[in-house]
Amino acid sequence: MAPTPTPGANDPLANFYAKVDELESVFIERLGDAVKIPSISAQADRRKDVFEMSEWVAAKMRTVGIDVTLKPLGKQAGTDLELPPLVLGRYGKDPQKPTVLVYCHYDVQPASLEDGWKHEPFVMTVEDNGRLCGRGTSDDKGPLIGWINMIEAFQKVDVDVPANLVFCFEGMEENGSFGLREALEEEADKYFADVDVVCIADVVWVSDEQLSIPQGLRGIIFYLVTITGARQDAHSGGFGGQISEPMIDMVNIMASLVDSNGKILIPGIYDNVQPVTEKEYESYKELNISEDSLYGGTGGRSLHDNQADALIARWKKPSLSLHRIENALPGAGAVTSIPAKLVGKFSIRTVPFMKAEEIDVIVRRHIQDRFASLGSKNDIEIEAYPSDWFYEDAGHWNYQAAIRATRNVWGVDPAMTCEGGSIPIALDFKKILKKNVLLLPVGRPTDGQHSTNEKLDKSNYINAIKLYGSYLREAATLWRENKNRVSSA
Amino acid sequence: MAPTPTPGANDPLANFYAKVDELESVFIERLGDAVKIPSISAQADRRKDVFEMSEWVAAKMRTVGIDVTLKPLGKQAGTDLELPPLVLGRYGKDPQKPTVLVYCHYDVQPASLEDGWKHEPFVMTVEDNGRLCGRGTSDDKGPLIGWINMIEAFQKVDVDVPANLVFCFEGMEENGSFGLREALEEEADKYFADVDVVCIADVVWVSDEQLSIPQGLRGIIFYLVTITGARQDAHSGGFGGQISEPMIDMVNIMASLVDSNGKILIPGIYDNVQPVTEKEYESYKELNISEDSLYGGTGGRSLHDNQADALIARWKKPSLSLHRIENALPGAGAVTSIPAKLVGKFSIRTVPFMKAEEIDVIVRRHIQDRFASLGSKNDIEIEAYPSDWFYEDAGHWNYQAAIRATRNVWGVDPAMTCEGGSIPIALDFKKILKKNVLLLPVGRPTDGQHSTNEKLDKSNYINAIKLYGSYLREAATLWRENKNRVSSA
């Protein structure tokens, strides 16, 4: 059951909202024009379309007066492909307003009719139920164009856009975001120097029935454990019982990491995990999340049978997953061979306030101790690839503005949630710009962002435009209050 | 250091041996003719050459008076390819002689110059050091043609071949021996009805420096353990900690089977293992086996640092090897995915007098108990594919004849050894014909039977012919003695 959009009639942005509604068909047509360009970043033969899309976005931005700069990112490492540019833009430079950096991306996932699309994926179809169907409608062209639409609507009701805007629109998000981090580092003290907060419009609600704003993302430390025995695979008939087998060490180490109930067995791993408060626990009980969202993906193998515990396991607790054990030598080897070299892959999802460096120390010590206890004749090597968790204080005016705006536009309070996976971009913005980063949802989890028949509900598209406007207005108000409080303190 | 061939001058077969030596160049030319036909059974486009080879073998057999029957084996299952025939033959039907079934194969492994051969693999090159180089010289055309050569040499010195011979020459040995088992079952009471013993001439010495006759082969029980969780792989970010992971159960089960020192941890598994006698242990110490044969394949990861213990581990003890853990759903999945369904593969090498059915019971019970102890929400399934160990009493006249013949021809006693791997054909002959089966080595382990630059030493080729003759003579003598003893008892 989707919530009914009910922007308050007494909202000072009532004229703006009305204009957005009035321009609905223009905005929908605009999204349709964007969908037509198959800007698939992961397909080399579509790279030219990604470039065309960057030009299209830049042109649309210019029509509403945004000062656009295309920042080239050079070649894609290991290829002859030119990376699509960052489309940077500035709108407004009023010192009496906060400056909000807006991130979206203009590239899309691959799509073709043969994959099972009902309609041609690069021709937007408006279905009777109001769904805007087409690749990129939800991820992320709809959310991106919404910002341009918002400026246009403000202009048409002759109201100042409430905040200064800095745009950072990327064309490689669906293909590794190559070049983004370096560009952020390069521009942190230049183009982005005056940014107060960041708003990333590339996430969805926690459930179709539950509006939400995620304030936390788990981190990940990805581990490769390599165990090396003989120089080549041995035949188990000829050598079984005589030769030291890396696989035996590997399964022993893997089995020592986590139990079948999901409990991590590495001593000290839970030491810095933030406890779940009773209030949080109660709030998780109340969330309106469908059974399918909650348990569908587990195929009846959920370790928890109630919503709060399941969500806490996903969002608030670390987890350790064993991914695979791979033969590290070329060739598959006979089915009865004894593999000579193996790579075991596992990862730890981390949460506030675990410290990646400390975790790495205790994980390595645990593995080395376990390996030593086996008395193996093989060699072991451990590699770790950490990426931090992300957690923002929802008390920050950036979040409070988003919460108020959601209430203003959708008429309901958003739930403050987390996500189990990481969004590296969010962390990059936070670490490099050192500003509060907001993930502002536009679409719904069933939009099919990376699958067939991607859609964006018309209500979500139109309300996103209103949400952006309201968010900027609330942000400006809170920023000013906050500034006055600080200066008068 | 190769032993010097010294057939005793006082051997009653002295004339036969001299004739073999005299015909050396004829015999070598004959092997060269056989090598020219690239009878590669594993390559569909060479199947016609395998058929040509069967005709060539049949024709050569007929020239020495063997009564030849080509037994068609029908189509290769799942293909349109006709299986090459079994070339069956009979020579002699004297009730005063034992009847020896001789098995060899006339197909070969693939080979091409690009693989790194010094010479064209299907043109036999006689090197200065006496090596006969070419695909199939050692495996198994040399050993096969040796039987025909033997009959010719006996005929030319006007001496009766000492035993009746039944030939069974196969053309699919290097590609699964399809059809052989069924043919053996079909002919057991017909073509093979009067067979007294079997001699398989398709093995090599235990080491280049150590003549040997293997009397035992380990069996194998191959296990597939399937653990099923969700219907599809899950993302470890979204579901890690909430979902029950098959990989965690799998590594726990695998780790419970065997330790890093090669000790099998399944209770009762060693119960019926035949103890190694002091005499055996001492004899293993004495074997002349190179360091490289013994430890080369282990790359410094041998669990045993002396010859007797290493050989016992390979030959006389069961072993349990962990082969791999594979994703059982199509597609590799993201590197951070939680696999939904896994197949773990391991095998147990069995030795006398373990009973496959009993072993299977205790293995399944162990795995099920372990799985139950994990409290997992997943499902488990266990499949077993057993193939028995092979062990013959060296006191049988078939073995004693081979031992005496080795001494007669090579001047040294062969070591009675085992092999760690299984030879399914040996077991098939034993189980179906229910006769004593001898594995009579011709070549050396460094002949490169399945690799590049395959060779057969000229001394091994020529001495095999003498060995066959001597073996049949000793067999006939012992058979008669044995018969008289039995009838007078």
TrEMBL record, chains A, B:
GO terms for molecular function: metal ion binding; peptidase activity. Pfam families: M20_dimer, Peptidase_M20. Keywords: Hydrolase, Metal-binding, Protease. Coiled coil: none annotated. Residues 216-370 form the Peptidase M20 dimerisation domain. One of its GO terms (biological process) is proteolysis. InterPro entries: ArgE/DapE_CS, Cyt/Met_Dipeptidase, Peptidase_M20, Peptidase_M20_dimer. Belongs to the peptidase M20A family. PANTHER family: BETA-ALA-HIS DIPEPTIDASE, CARNOSINE DIPEPTIDASE 2, ISOFORM A. This is Peptidase M20.
